[in-house]
Amino acid sequence: MASETVVPINADVDVVVARQRGRELASELGFVPTDSTLIATAISELARNIVCYAKHGEILIKPVQSGDRVGIAVVARDKGPGIANISLAMQDGFTTSGGLGLGLPGVKRLVDEFHLVSNANSGTTVTIKKWKR
Amino acid sequence: MQVPILKQGQYLIASIQGALGDQDLVQLRDALAEKVGRLRARGVIVDVTVLDVMDSFASRTLRDLAHMTRLRGAETVIVGIQPEVAFAMVQLGLTLEGVDTALDLEEGLAFLDKKMKRSRSRG
């Protein structure tokens, strides 16, 4: 089975690297092109959040298995300022960086599982999973 | 990766050749806004056929590009958004509102020709 990769995120070019790695792993695992695109797009948004809000962090991309289901998990981790109000951040249209503010709720729509942990001291970790159809 | 910008008649055609970082996109936006004036272009086509991901930043930058060139007197049309990219964009809520799009370069040129004709006959 394909192995996991960690992409350090420090600048906007790393966003491109991270989403390309995600697409590579997705096609290696046999995801259909549409789903590979959804995964790559989700990674792009998560990696950009790191660049915009935390400056530095990493994206871990790995295959996951549950019973006979195969999927891909992406963990976006940073030690940035954290998200002060998570329920607000999960509302469509909310942003603190002058962006479109569709980031997190949009990402949630792209994937099957979405998990967000954030606090002021330890930064933010977003874990997403998408299962092969 | 820099995006080559070609002039054809009164149009500028920017064909994206590969994955673009944020800075590349911003550079493309600014270059087109400037070239519209310097080369006196009336229309701009941005061909995104090779882009396999259009995230919120790319969408916003293309939308800004279209609005900036319109303020400078040129119409922009985005061509070549792939079906799975379109699907991901809709899921994200990115609809490129207020921006003209066309299937491919050919349709984009036809779209601009029609627009130019209309504005001339009105003129």
The main pleated sheet of chain B reads as:
5 strands, mixed
What order do the strands of the largest sheet of chain B run in, or round the barrel if closed? 1-2-3-4-5
Report the strand count of chain B.
5
- Overall structural class of chain B, as computed from helix and strand content, comes to alpha/beta
In CATH's first tier, which class of chain A applies?
A: Alpha Beta
Order of helices and strands of chain B: EEHEHEHEH
- Report the structural category of chain A: alpha+beta
> How many domains, in number, for the residues of chain B?
1
Shape of chain B: globular
Low-confidence stretches of chain A: 98-102
What value does the Rg of chain B take, in angstroms? Answer: 14 Å
By CATH, the topology of chain A is Heat Shock Protein 90
What brief labels describe this structure?
heterodimer; A: 133 residues; alpha+beta; Heat Shock Protein 90; 5-stranded antiparallel sheet; 4 helices; 5 strands; 38% helix; B: 123 residues; alpha/beta; Transcription Regulator spoIIAA; 50% helix; 18% strand; globular
Explain what this protein looks like in three dimensions.
The complex is a heterodimer of chains A (133) and B (123). Chain A has 133 residues and is of the alpha+beta class. Chain A is built from four helices and five strands. In chain A, α1 (12-28) packs antiparallel against α2 (33-54). Chain A is globular. Chain B is an alpha/beta fold and 123 residues long. Chain B has a single domain (5-117), classed as Transcription Regulator spoIIAA. Chain B has four helices and five strands; from the N terminus they run ββαβαβαβα. Chain B has helices at 22-38, 56-71, 83-92, 105-122; strands at residues 5-8, 11-15, 43-47, 75-79, 100-102. In chain B, strands 1-2-3-4-5 form a five-stranded mixed β-sheet, with helices on both faces. Chain B starts with a strand and ends with a helix. The model of chain B has no long low-confidence stretch (mean pLDDT 94). Chains A and B meet through α1, α2 and α4 of A and α2 and α3 of B.
